[in-house]
Amino acid sequence: EVEGLKPESRCRGAPMEYEEFQASQASQPFAFETQDDDDDTQAQPFNFIDDHEEDGGGGGGADGPAAAGAAADDMMTCAVCDDGGGASAASVGAGAGDGLEFVEEDEREAPVPSELPAWACSYCNVHTPSAVVKCVTTGRWFCNYRPPGLPASCIVYHLIKSRNNEVTLHAESPLGEITLECFLTGTKNVFSLGFVPVKEDLVVLLARDVDVSGIEDASDWDLTKWQPLVREKAFVPWLVKQPTDSEALRARPCSVAQISRLEELWRTNPAATYADTLSAEGDALDGGEPAPIQRQYEDAYQYQSIMGPLVRLEAENDRQMREAQTQEALSVRWDMALNKRRLAYFTLPSNEAELRLVGGDELLLRHPGDASHPPFEATGTVVRLNHASEEVGLELRSGGGAPTDLSHGYSVDVVWKSVAYDRMQTALKTFAVDETSVSGYIYHRLLGHEVEQPPVRTPLPRRFGAPGLPELNHSQVLAVKTVLQKALSIVQGPPGTGKTVTSASIVYHLCKQNTGQTLVCAPSNVAVDQLSEKIHMTGLRVLRFCAKSRESADSRVEYLTLHYQVRHLDSPANAELRKLQALKEELGELSQADEKRFNSLRRRAELEILSAADVVCCTCSAAGDPRISSLRFRQCLIDEATQAPEPECLIPIVLGAKQLVLVGDHQQLGPVVMCKKAARAGLGVSLFERLLELQGR
Q1: Pairing of β 615-619 and β 518-522
Q2: pLDDT tens digit string along 542-555?
Q3: Nearby residues of 626 by Cβ (< 8 Å), 6 or more positions away
Q4: Which end of the chain is flanked by fewer CB atoms within 10 Å, N or C?
């Protein structure tokens, strides 16, 4: 039996015994026997009919369908009593009906209802009483089934999307119509609720880390055996049943996009139904296939009209996936960073492989609070990732009020940001409307037009290697020599052929042409760091530009970063900036006037450092940062260009490129596109690969 849910009239104290529950179950249904997960008698009631027919020979007459149906009723009653303990007569009747629905010999015994009951799942229509619960806040019913593609069961997904956490069981469930809550504190947040074995076949519902000192009969409670009610993004099946395979087959097909759209509609129209997702504005995301990419485009407007919708599809898919990646019941270890900000360390469950974090990601850390702590939530940036131990280090923006004396019961939500996708859309628009974004030759080549290669009048160096780097072999020398004489070059090389050293040598000689700064990009921060380090070895002034969200992340080239150089300026002209920086680090914040002055001085210092650099290195997406996009770069090299979608490569290109170099290997890893529609339409084809196809290679 399970215990721990009490009516308001009951005093909080020792658990109610099973005999007391049996006497009061009709009005106070809050205890029941634990259901055996291995017992499939209730999960597949029609098996009883099959067994009976086999035992009885499956004949007609007295042993025909009518007798089989009666026997099934008897069998189902036993199954419900065995699994559900104090199940009411209504539950037994419903269970028997469910069992007869699967008898194909005589459908008249269990006609399919013409209308779904009020407790049918708002997503998929599953309506087995023991498999559904109601969200207390929204009043809608959801089941414990996980439709294909959905990252959680219907009820858990709804609670996460709607930011709710209280549920009520069905009146015909084994527990009856009750709201789940902690036996001692009354906490109703299901994500912090769990159960603890008390006696044999008896458990009590408790919130995590609840204090049981002073509670009578609590000495037998082993709190180390506490287990959450929500595991693997679904309720434990002994509390809320999983639909049977046959019930799941009858569930309404629903995509993740449709479910997410339904949740969005409910925010403005609580009366919206599933049918509204088929006609809501923006339904093109769920409609027909988008237009596929072309090898050649008439003009930049056609290019934008095809690439833009694909970027929107990928952005919407990414948003849905990220927002569904909530982690519950985490333990947190607190620390203080050198900049006096709070650090929260936690370990992600090993089975949560779909939660892919990188340095700079934003997360929302939450705690529901308890009797002595108010609810807490704060946004932070991932600054450390230990892939071996799966530990994550989160630096909080504002650590005030953090419950540092609590180590359990935390939740983490991924904060989705559209910055990268917005910058792709901006680059597509810039390419279409700004004639100065790229040279005329690169413009036509990117669209796939056949145009004559313009001559690049520059004296070639006597030595094609670069100081501080290994000597180049014959093929590497040929690559450098060819690139320096062309406005658009594609450098392809398998792993281990020295593409990084070759790229650094190319950048060195481009800078020595004295035609302006060179912009060096790659899709990943790791690739940018490696190339920045190599280029720095040549003696050039290299600036590694990072997004603000990554300024606290560990990097082996931190000494090259913009924020590091600003922080360590020692010229007399920057004395005021250093003073305000030290004051902010000491106090955590500045007055409004000082903050305004500090930002002004910092922007001026950043611009000075950026302008003095020979080479600016950043990710393709970071090139859209206003501090970079306000500059002009005549020469642009993109390393690992085969790993970035074409619109992402366009972000650094449209900053005035007149000489473009793409480096990569199209035989290796390509762009990662999660949206299947966008992938089928060709968003997974890189600019590098498309240009090679145009050359017939």
Answers
A1: parallel
A2: 999 998 877 777 78
A3: none
A4: C
